[in-house]
Every structure is written in structure tokens, then in C-alpha cells.
Amino acid sequence: MTRLPVNLMIGAVLVGLVVATAALSLVWTPYDHTLLNIRDKFAPASPVHWLGTDQLGRDVFSQLMAAARNSVAVALTAVFIGGSIGVSLGLLASAIGGLVEDIVMRLADISFAFPALLFAIMLAAVFGPSLTVAVVAIAFINIPVFARVARASANQIWTREYVFAARAAGMGRFAITRDHVLPNIAAPVIVQATIEFAIAILAEAALSYLGLGAQPPAPSWGRMLSEAQTLMYLAPQLAIYPGLCIVVAVLGFSLLGDGLRDVTDPRLVRER
Amino acid sequence: MIKASKLSVSLGAGQAVRDVSLLVRPGDRIGVVGESGCGKTMLGLAMIGMTPAAAKVSGSLRLDNAEMVGADEKSWQVQRARRVAMVFQEPMAALNPIKRVGDTVMEPLIIHMGLSRAQARECALSLFEEVGIPDPEARFRQFPHEISGGQRQRVLIALALTCDPGLLIADEPTTALDANVALRITELLARLARDRTMALLFISHDLAAVARSTEDMLVMYGGDIVERGKTAAVLSDPRHPYTQGLLSARPRPENVRETDGRRKRLPTIPGAVPPLADLPAGCRFAGRCPVEMSQCATVRPAEREGTICHQLEAAT
Ligand SMILES: Nc1ncnc2c1ncn2[C@@H]1O[C@H](COP(=O)(O)OP(=O)(O)O)[C@@H](O)[C@H]1O
Ligand SMILES: [Mg+2]
């Protein structure tokens, strides 16, 4: 056993913190995060309200916890959906090759070039802003990313001799894709998913900040940030806390992704 | 029954296999010898429909009654493993490093033979036993890096046997193995061919292994079959100058030491197999042949009693 890279460990701790908080918020928060208490507004941090209250007297700590849940849920769903579609397309392109591969990859290029924010605004205009809009928009931008990673990795696997041997044993493209290619591209796909997770959390915060994502009373770090913006001079901590949460979550997933990449990089594996 | 007639494989620069005709009947054990680059692998790949994308295959190849030259990947897929299977040189590379070897062998049984997982397991275990893997149950759960090279090659032979092929092509299956292990793999292949009345095309440059495990043999040079016949006859009485050169180049006691005990230089065939583009149009061996005549490089010799050589043509 060699030492794990530092970025992996720090990333894992931060991610663990965010995910644990999100999970905990499902069963327990200090207060109901929607509970208004106007008389107690702008309360400072204290043993009663650990991080104080906001302009409507809601407990900030409880809101941050509930927002973590939304952030993680949106990122998880969006990356899962976008990743599944993208990986399937990438595997398909790689397995069939030729014209199909060209078409899939050109489509990926086009959607990659299409501004995600524009897409989110379009969706919000048609269906009304909601977390679902955020999920769909983020999933959409993930499709070409995963399609590319999956295709590039799969193309490498297709040149391996064990794929050749499997073909010689009579296995078809799709059976080989399922039994040999997919398991062997799992590592780069997981690394990519972790990095996309960070981007998704940032994207959800940005969309909610712009009012295209979470709607009141659904808690979201991005929305908390935009609400606190007008109160910057009065109560700067209301912007700082959700901002810090975003930083911690994004940094955590980025570091974790980098660390996983270091660990799974074949060049490093060979040295061990 | 498998019948190749004038089977050729063109690869941009030239023909890696030229007009090969070959009849393989159930239970035939055929050795294929020749230096590196003589087209042995390409012939094997052509017979299983797996030549590189850039290669053009022409002539005729009949698997039982199906014509396979020009057949698409789908039709080949049906024939592979059932009629023809192949084992490769590098047993480590040919196994997926992250799959348990048992799963690797079970897959084609489930996909091709339509067996349930339990049946496939039974069947794969009995194949493991048949190819001489000790304690199959335990091996089944291991990964390729956990077993020895010889065991890996046995796993790959089991994989090739999953659909009970009529012909097994073994492309230098022992080159990557120790002499001892190689010997046992060679014996295994010969035994399997006998027990199953399966045909075996044994590609090797180990003449001793070919002598031990095959009845017939082909000598390839520059994509041609330059000599063919009963293995014992070819080895004891080689007729083509290339076969003669190949035989005198093998290490044997009388070749290794002089009478006074000094190390002899091993006789070799002068020169090397030229690249495809530089092969002579006539006899492929022209340019390296010790008994070359003026027409050799340009005129293709006709086959006489299993050999193609102008000298022998002239003699009869
Ligand atoms: N993928 C390829 N592309 C082009 N030429 C090839 C390829 N593979 C083999 N060749 C050429 O085909 C000839 C026969 O090769 P091969 O069948 O591998 O010989 P052998 O197995 O007898 O050593 C050689 O001249 C080799 O350089
Ligand atoms: Mg070869």
C-alpha cells in the first residue's frame, strides 16, 4: 500500500463533510429551515442559532444544511443522467465506428459549443424556473463531456489483445462492449464524474443565483447568495456562509477528482 | 471441413498470403512453420475473418459449405468459435486483467450457447478440467495476474473450446512460455485434437514441437506455401531449398559443437525475409536461395508433389 495523494485525502474529507451534512438534513436540522421568526431577524451567531438568522429570522445553519441536500441531489441526478447518456453514446460510437462514430462525435461537438446558460434560460422560459430545469440543463452539458471521455477510453480498449481474443471466441460488439470495454473504462469515467460533480454544484448555485433554479422556499446556496446580495452592508455573513459552502463543496469534489485521477493513472499504477 | 482455394491477403504494400490452397478435415493436425514475417499469422487471421481493416482478402474460403471471403462481420461472428477458434501468442495480453478467468470463459457460453449462468459455470469448469487446469474451482475465481503463464494459456485454450470448434488455430501458443511448459501445452493441443476429432492448425517456429504434435505440415515463405506433406517426411527429407535451410538452422547437438568441442556458429539462412513490397514476383525465395536459377525471381514455379521450386520442376 502506497500513500494516498494529499489532494485525494483532503477532497475525500470535504466531500464526506458535504455529503454527510446533506444526508443528516434529511432527518435532522436544528430548526425547520422554512420557519419564519421576524422578531428574531439578523440574530448573531449564538448557541441558540449557531450561525444566526437571516432577514426573515430563519435559522441560517438549518438553511445551509437543507441547501446542501439540494445541491448534492441536483448534482447527483444531473451527472448521473448526463453521464449515462454520454457514456452510452461514447460506447456506441466506439463500438460501431465509421459514420455512426462521426455523427455522434460531431453532435457532441455541437452541443459542447452550445452555451449551457442559454439552454437553461430557454428551458426556464418554457417550463418556468425550477430545480428540474437546473437538473436538465446540467445533465445536458454533461452528455458531450462523458461521450468524449467514454469514446476516447473505449477506443483504447478496443485495440487490446483481450478484445481481439474475445472476438475470436465469437463475441459480438455489444457483448464485448458490455463485458470488456465498460468495466475497463470505469476508472476514467468515475474520475470525470467526480470533476463534473464539482462543476454541477457550481452550475446549480449559479442557476439558482440567477433565479433559473431553486425557487423559494426550496433552499439553495445560490439563492441564499442572491438574497443576501442586497444586504451585503447590513449582514455580510449571510453571503459569506453560502459562498463558503459552495467553495468547500466545489473544492472537495475537484480535489477528489484530481486525486482519483492520480491514483488511477496507468503510468502511476505501473510504478506501484 | 474447411477448404481454402487461392486464398490471398493483400496489405497495401503487397501480398502477405498468396494463393494458398488448403484442405482441413476433422481431426487433421497441421503444423505451419516459417520465419517471422512469412505470413503465418495472416493466414490464421484470414481463416477466422480477423485480418486487419486495411487488408483485402480474395480467393475462396469455405467453412463447411459457407463461402466466407467477402462475408460481413455478422456472418463471421456466427462461424467463429463454432467452426474456427484461435489461440494467440501472448496469454497475458489476451486475458482481460480485471476479469476473473472463470467469467471470461463463461461469457461466450452464455451469449453463444444460450446457457444459464449455472450451466455455463458447469460447462466452463469441465473445460478447465479438460485443458488440465488443476483445482478448477479455485482457479475460476482468480485474475490473470494471479496465475502462471502456462495456466493462462490453458484458460485461453478453454475459451477457444467453448463452442466446440471444428478447427483450432494456435498461433505460436508457446513462444512466450518456458520450454517445459511449452512442451506440455503442445501435448495438450495434440491431445485435444485427437480426443475431440478437432482439426488443429499449429503455427510455430519450433520444429521439434511441430514434429511432436502434427501429422501434416506446411512450410510458408513470403506468403506462399513452399512445401507441404507429412510432417515426418518433410522433416526427414526436405525438398525445397527454404525448408532445407530452415532445418539446418535448427539447434541440434551436431550443429552446436565442432568435433573438438568448440562452439559452432549455428548455420542460418543468409539474409532476412524482405518486407512485403520487396518480395520477388516469381519464387518468393529468389534472392536468398542458394540454388537460384535465372528465371526464379520473375516466373512463378508450379506445384510439384507438394513443393514449388524451379529446380524440382526441372528435375521431374
Ligand atoms: N497490420 C499489418 N499491416 C501491414 N502489414 C502487416 C500487418 N501485419 C503483418 N503485416 C506484414 O505481413 C507479413 C506477414 O506477417 P505475419 O503474418 O505476421 O507473419 P508471421 O506470423 O509468419 O510472422 C509481414 O511482412 C508483415 O510485415
Ligand atoms: Mg506471427
Write structural notes for this entry:
The complex is a heterodimer of chains A (272) and B (316). Chain A is mostly helical. Chain A has a single domain, classed as MetI-like fold (Orthogonal Bundle), CATH 1.10.3720.10. Chain A has ten helices and no strands. Chain A has helices spanning 6-27, 60-96, 98-113, 116-127, 131-158, 161-168, 173-209, 221-229, 237-264, 266-271. In chain A, helix 1 (6-27) packs across helix 9 (237-264), helix 2 packs antiparallel against helix 3 and helix 4 packs across helix 5 (131-158). The longest helix of chain A is centred in the N-terminal third of the chain and has 37 residues, at 60-96. The radius of gyration of chain A is 22 Å and the shape is elongated. The mean pLDDT of chain A is 91. Chain B is of the alpha/beta class. Chain B has a single domain (2-83, 165-315), classed as Rossmann fold, CATH 3.40.50. Chain B contains twelve helices and twelve strands. Chain B has helices at 40-47, 73-79, 101-113, 117-130, 136-140, 149-161, 179-196, 207-213, 231-236, 241-248, 253-256, 310-315; strands at residues 2-11, 14-24, 29-33, 56-63, 66-67, 84-87, 167-171, 199-203, 216-221, 224-230, 303-304, 307-308. Chain B has a six-stranded mixed β-sheet with strand order 6-7-8-3-9-10, sandwiched between helices. In chain B, helix 3 (101-113) packs parallel to helix 6 (149-161), helix 4 (117-130) crosses helix 6 (149-161) and helix 6 packs parallel to helix 7. Chain B is globular. The A-B interface holds A 160-162, 164-172, 175, 179-180, 183-184 and B 48, 50, 77-78, 80-82, 85-86, 88, 90, 93-99, 103-104, 107-108, 111-112, 156, 159-160, 162-163. The structure holds adenosine-5'-diphosphate and magnesium ion.
